[in-house]
Amino acid sequence: MPAELLLGTLLAAAFYIGLAPRINIPLYRKMLFFPARFPRDFPGLPNLEGIAGEDVFFKGEKGQTLNGWYFNKPDSEYVILFNHGNSGNLTIRHHISRLMVRAGYSVFVYDYQGFGRSTGRPTIDGICSDGAAAFDYLVNERGIDPRNIILYGESLGVSVAAHLSTVRQCSGMILQSGFASLTRIAHTHFPLLRIYPNSLFPQPALDNIAILKNSTMPLLIIHGELDRVIPVKHADDLFEAHGGSKKFVRLKGTAHGDVWSTAEQEYLEALLEFPTTLRDVRKELDAVAAASTPSSTKAIS
After folding, report:
1. Contact residues for 204 (Cβ-Cβ < 8 A; gap 6+)
2. Is the Cβ–Cβ distance between 219 and 185 less than 8 Å?
3. What pTM, to 2 d.p., does this model score?
4. How many CB atoms lie within 10 A of CB 245?
5. Cα(202)–Cα(27) distance, rounded to whole angstroms?
6. Per residue in 204-263, pLDDT tens?
7. Backbone angles phi and psi of 221, in degrees to 5
8. pLDDT above 80: residue 194
9. Higher confidence at residue 3 or residue 16?
10. Domain extents in the chain
């Protein structure tokens, strides 16, 4: 092989590998994450439906300090762990958090590393570990029964919630405005990335379809039909993949980030109904567990 051709081949290979999503993390971090620091002039923690927020800090997997707001509704049965999208910070999520509280839930919304007042810089594996840290905070520091925790994902946060469902036990999932997989949405918005196999994308793979195919956890999907950021077909495929108890709420007049302002009543109704599904599924599981318990064990108990 001529020296010039060999050199060109080596340069092309280096260029290809150097721009791979799994290799060039700084480049794709800028394409995927749009964090905003906590505003200096923020007036203070919001009061949601009469519930005062509590400002909390907890540690992430690698020692980073993560910030969250906890809205503890005294009579709530379930706590929503709110994993938000890829932009801004928790200060712009109080509108939708308010609807969660109105629907009867306690809410814990937090910022991933690099967002708001959370330290560090966001990465795919980092935000997934942040979700686990937030879950563990609720269980270990707040004494919340995992069976009373609902994983809520918004946009990119859908992947955090889905991943979290594979490493922690909880009650159910609510997935709002999410994508089927990271590679699929990347191919949609950046067609040149089609030259890379899945193995050259970041890990965890954020393949929500694959996760839901292996999940029977109660599921509520909410998605706007006018969404141009993540088309509703992604939600159709997520719903189809799931094999357990599920419901899909399609919002006809809603785009991507305006669920709370365009479909307040439909959104509230969906959240109000979900606990009934959770209770029914828990009763079924308890009945199966009781039926499978040996009679000698029952007598001892």
Report:
1. 124, 125, 128, 163
2. no
3. 0.88
4. 16
5. 12
6. 778 999 999 999 999 999 999 999 999 999 999 999 999 999 999 999 999 999 999 999
7. -110, 135
8. no
9. 3
10. 33-272
Q: Average pLDDT for residues 131-137, to the nearest whole number?
A: 98
HSE-up (13 A, CA, CB side) for residue 125: 8
Q: With pLDDT > 70 as the criterion, what percentage of the chain qualifies?
A: 82
Q: Which CATH superfamily is domain 33-272 in?
A: Alpha/Beta hydrolase fold, catalytic domain (3.40.50.1820)
Given a cut of 70, whether residue 10 has pLDDT beyond it is: no
Angstrom distance (rounded) from CA 162 to CA 175 = 8
Active-site residue list: 155, 227, 256
End-to-end Cα, the chain, rounded Å: 78
pLDDT on residue 182: 82
Nearest to 184 by CA among 153, 221, 210, 151: 210
**Residue type for 141, please?**
E
Mean pLDDT of the chain: 88
